[in-house]
Amino acid sequence: AASNSFAESGADLELVGIQKRFPGFTAIEHLDLTIPAGSFFALLGPSGCGKTTTLRLVAGLEEPSEGQIRIGGTDVTALKPHRRPVNTVFQSYALFPHMSILENVAFGLRRRRIGDPVGKAHEALRLVELDHVADRKPAQLSGGQQQRVALARAVVNRPALLLLDEPLGALDLKLRRQMQQELKEIQQEVGLTFLHVTHDQEEAMTMADTVAVMNKGRIEQMGAPEVLYELPKTVFVANFLGQSNLFVVRVTGESGEAIHTSLNGDRITVPLARTERTSGTITVGVRPEKIRLHSEAPEEAAGVNAIGPGRITDVSFSGVSTQYTVEAPEFGQVQVFAQNVEAGPAARLGDEVWLSWLV
Ligand code: ATP
């Protein structure tokens, strides 16, 4: 795959001190961001956090109020959209209905008088594995295939940077999962820099090598998906990426990299990196899959922290796993995910249980 002619054409994207004010509203408070060439970068955040505005700034459809945008080291802040080495794939991909698939892909090349439009369009269609339908019209393809054509059209002129704005949003769940995988493979094959915007945490985590979580016009945390999931720096990030039980506990001491807490009578220590500090108390986030249910108080063992007793108030089975809600006197409702392959009798609604945390 490394030998195809798309390879190694990506470029760095740098956003330096970007701010974007609209009349009466600041959509981007402050953004400093470097996306290395050839990486798959996801901007993840809730509706209204400023993701689309960021993409529009990079594409040149909006002008920043402050700051500079550089692509491949060149300042593009003042360049018109068509002068930037950037293409965008939107959720609504709008292929020309009367043109063949091949002509849809070749169209932009013809307009810009770029040589060999047909050969290049075929190459791009081979990349998305649709060259065999080159002569069909868009209406004769499925939604997923049409989205792949839109992708072929976006990479055919080899932009240094591809912007993806919720490109899979219109597809059903199963097709979406499949396209996530394909998109990732295509990105690796073409070596372009991808900047993908989504509010779907699973999509961001499965596809991107780096994820930036955005909230209210700022990046809260940025890193590899595993790091964001395992070591969220803020409560917002912990809650946005999957579920988390948040225990607010008193700090009773500190040693090295660990904090001692009032959880289960001072006996539980928490790695410093996992906490968000407030004076005297800390919020400890524990993922539901890190909590185990026991029929009685568990023995002390390395890596097992007893949290306390509780009663099961809800059980919901979902195939591979079961989700329990446990009412614990000290902490309120605690969510627990258990994989159904685990041995032992299943806990039932109303059971008195003990909770432990696998640190
Ligand atoms: P979504 O996922 O819903 O598209 P988003 O994270 O992409 O959300 P943006 O579209 O970037 O959010 O918008 C960020 C904020 O800026 C929103 O509160 C929006 O109302 C505001 N905004 C966007 N464009 C304008 C504009 N032209 N004038 C005023 N406010 C705007």
From TrEMBL:
Cellular-component GO terms for this entry: ATP-binding cassette (ABC) transporter complex
Catalytic activity: ATP + H2O + polyamine-[polyamine-binding protein]Side 1 = ADP + phosphate + polyamineSide 2 + [polyamine-binding protein]Side 1
UniProt KW keywords: ATP-binding, Cell membrane, Membrane, Nucleotide-binding, Translocase, Transport
GO molecular function terms listed in the Swiss-Prot or TrEMBL record: ABC-type polyamine transporter activity; ATP binding; ATP hydrolysis activity
One Pfam family in the UniProt entry: TOBE_2
InterPro entries per UniProt: AAA+_ATPase, ABC_SmlMolc_Importer, ABC_transporter-like_ATP-bd, ABC_transporter-like_CS, Mo/tungstate-bd_C_term_dom, P-loop_NTPase, PotA-like, Transp-assoc_OB_typ2
Domain ABC transporter: start-end pairs: 13-241
EC number(s) from the headed UniProt entry: 7.6.2.11
Similarity section: Belongs to the ABC transporter superfamily. Spermidine/putrescine importer (TC 3.A.1.11.1) family.
Subunit structure: The complex is composed of two ATP-binding proteins (PotA), two transmembrane proteins (PotB and PotC) and a solute-binding protein (PotD).
Role, per record: Part of the ABC transporter complex PotABCD involved in spermidine/putrescine import. Responsible for energy coupling to the transport system.
Name of the protein in its database record: Spermidine/putrescine import ATP-binding protein PotA
Species this protein is from: Leucobacter aridicollis
Gene: potA
